[in-house]
Amino acid sequence: MPHRSAASAELLRASLVDQLRELGAIGSDRVADAFRTVPRYLFTPSAPLEAAYANDVVITKRDRRGVALSSVSAPQNQALML
């Protein structure tokens, strides 16, 4: 499992919030606060921190052939849904 420091995760979360605000995906302070608070990396246990906080889907489970079975949605999509 990749090394995960709380300080690194916090910086990456803050950067992601800034990016999502610039894209217009975060439309309220409440949504921004949620993204700053929830540790996304806990939902992507095998991904490096940089992948967990990238604005992209993270595949969390694949079958024996490599077909994606489960994923965490891209942060931009999550923000727009919220």
Describe the structure.
The protein is an alpha+beta fold. The chain has one domain: 3-Layer(aba) Sandwich (Rossmann fold), CATH 3.40.50.150. Helix content is 46%, strand content 12%. A hairpin with a 5-residue loop joins strand 1 and strand 2. Helix 1 runs antiparallel to helix 2. The mean pLDDT is 92.
Report the portion of residues in β strands: 5-15%
**Which parts are unreliable, with pLDDT below 50 for 5 consecutive residues or more?**
none
**Which class do the helix and strand fractions yield?**
alpha+beta
CATH topology: Rossmann fold
By DSSP, the count of extended strands is 2
What CATH architecture would you give?
A: 3-Layer(aba) Sandwich
CATH homologous superfamily caption: Vaccinia Virus protein VP39
Contiguous helical run count: 4
Taking the sheet with the most strands, its summary is: 2 strands, antiparallel
**Strand ordering within the main sheet:** 1-2
Overall residue-averaged pLDDT value: 92
Oligomer: single chain
Query: What series of H and E elements makes up the topology?
Result: HHHEEH
- Shape label: globular
CATH top level class name: Alpha Beta
Measured distance between first and last alpha carbons:
30 Å
